[in-house]
């Protein structure tokens, strides 16, 4: 009986926290998860990582960096508990990239293949997750758009450097949009930026306009809106 109640309590916590997260109530979702009666559960740990990372986006330094590192720790623990679920690989990939970015260009470059490996594994486990397609698109776009001095660092670390093109990035961003239309303002922004890089200003304007007109509900919407507005002025 007690075990059934605990399972019910865990299920209710997960359902409620997901609802809060979807409503952009990241602090409430985080607080709820941290009070869980089963804090060591896999389903709790990756959700804490997700909520804390999203909270970090609106937090100033140095607290922001602390939150990213703590998020990465939760994601690492979640992956150790269950490496057969897409969410574990997805959030480990996202937070490995974020955490390694805090440790300097060389560390971030060193982790590129691991970031890619875990996101591709997430998509193998769940090919219908739009956000994972978006993140993989970001990976390819980042490689295609790498400044020359970072390319030199990549070349010194890898015998065969990881490669990425704007075409590969576009394929991923389009896949994300097809999977879940209008799901994310940042995907509209990146579609616009990628089309611009590919010299298709008509399509770039279409998606940048969508991003610039987004209703701001969170930090990502704010960033997408501001960047899209700036890029539209240059088209």
Overall structural domain count: 2
CATH superfamily of the largest domain: Tetratricopeptide repeat domain
Alpha carbon gyration radius: 19 Å
3D shape: globular
Proportion of β residues? under 5%
Organism: Aedes aegypti (Yellowfever mosquito)
Protein name: Regulator of microtubule dynamics protein 1
GO cellular component, one term: mitotic spindle pole
Subcellular location: Cytoplasm, Cytoskeleton
Question: Could you explain the architecture of this structure?
Answer:
It is found in: Cytoplasm, Cytoskeleton. The chain is 77% helix and 0% strand. The protein is mostly helical and 235 residues long.
Keywords, separated by commas or semicolons:
mainly alpha, 235 residues, Serine Threonine Protein Phosphatase 5, Tetratricopeptide repeat, disordered N terminus, 13 helices
List the helices and strands and how they pair.
Blueprint: H1 2-22, H2 26-34, H3 42-56, H4 63-81, H5 86-102, H6 105-110, H7 112-125, H8 130-144, H9 148-157, H10 166-179, H11 185-197, H12 201-212, H13 219-234
Summarize the structure.
The chain folds into two domains: 120 residues, Serine Threonine Protein Phosphatase 5, Tetratricopeptide repeat, CATH 1.25.40; 107 residues, Serine Threonine Protein Phosphatase 5, Tetratricopeptide repeat, CATH 1.25.40.
